[in-house]
Amino acid sequence: MSTANPDYGTPRGREHYPPQYPQDGGRPQSQYTQYAQSRRSRSRPPPVDEQQYDYGPGTEMPPALDGDDFYTGSQANFHDPPSIASQSVRAPSPPPGPILDHSHLRPGNQASLLSHDRTLELYRANAKKTQDPDLIFEFAVFMIDASKTMPIPAPTSGNVMDVEKALEKREELIREAIALLKRNADRGHMPSQYFLADCYANGIGTHKNRQDFDRAFPLFVLAAKHGHPDAAYRAGTCCENGWGCRRESAKALTFYKKAAAALHPGAMYRLGIAELNGELSLSKSPKEGVKWLKRSAEHATAEFPHALHELALLHERGVDNVLFVDNEYAAELLAQAAELGYAPSAYKLGECYEYGKMGCPQDPALSIHYYNIAAQQNHRDACFALTAWYLVGSPGVLPQSDTEAYLWAKKAAEAGLVKAMYAVGYFSEVGIGTEPELPEAIRWYKRAADLGDKRAAQRLKSSSKGPIATPGGPGAVLHRDNDGSDSGSGKGRDKDCVIM
């Protein structure tokens, strides 16, 4: 297993690893079609390269990929923490067919620079020459993608017309694409049926760009009847949550089983959680639930790695007469999920290697490595774990940096972590990693106190008498020597560091 790079403390000027962790809750967002998958197998994320993670939160992160959060019903309660329902990250665009050749855009001696408009016209002209529904479908998908990446000028007082023209041009692309998809869908083209449903579900080509499940659900059902596994899964989530139809567990179960029969990992995971917890009108059956989770784990993807994580938690605790405790195997499952980019698994491994849990050795390099994987995806607990590491550093692995500690704490606080709000307030009060600023400290203390943090409430009382001159003292965040080294056991983390 690789180790972390010692240069974790140079964040400026580098881009973060693209976040992949979708947030819980919310309605489904987007996912490409089985058609695209059949033309190009979904590749797994590249192996984790420690060089990707040797920077902090100071650099602006690229936008997160659209997350699919298809299931927001009752959380699984079979174990603690609760199960996270199936989620999906948008797959790559369908690859170009024979007439959708991007070679003219590739750098090289033969490259010719064409404008965006010219490229689009070439696609349009070629697509009009064919009646092949697959190629027409690809062109429609291309236009939807182009509409999302089309540059829109920043609005100013002098370019109102330019902005309006750009927005109208984007809408025209979407209208043309939707019209092509409708024509294909009416002729029974399964990928077009699914992709059009996906567009409606995400507010693409709809009135005021609002989600329209009334039109999406029937198309999901049509594509599912034609054998589209993702469509069957999405139809199941609609039936389970009442999106565009009545909430019916029996129908949801039927669609999930149809998708599971085609080895859809999300559907198998959902069935496993339902069996474990007695959901979807099923009786509790841990044995059957574990079977579904194992099947889902065997077919886990970057979009659906959840079964690996759930099985790891079950093996950590054991299930009477079903699963025995096996910490080594649990850690292996977590590593597989982390490799697929699943932030909760990466965070848990970071804890395991920090504190020596689940039979893992205490290894600062691996702990920081896995925390970074999760933190780059905005996992707030992982961000705050890096705060603690940066406060004390780790010789040969991570240089001590108050500035990075403050930035990661602020990132976690902005994500809603209460103890991070308290820490940012304290850092701002006494000047750790930032200039002392009592109004800023009070603002964070108030946010933390409003959410029930007693330490923050105490600091608010003491702050009325003026800021503390130096770190330490009652309610302090950490105790350490003036040189930045920790005053704890010497293992890299201060046992008196109470921000955690």
From TrEMBL:
SUPFAM superfamilies: HCP-like. Keywords: Repeat. Residues 1-110, 459-500 are annotated as: Disordered. Residues 491-500 have a biased composition (Basic and acidic residues). It comes from the Eukaryota. The keyword Transferase does not apply. Residues 28-37 have a biased composition (Polar residues). Pfam families: Sel1. SMART domains: SEL1. This is HCP-like protein. It comes from Hermanssonia centrifuga.
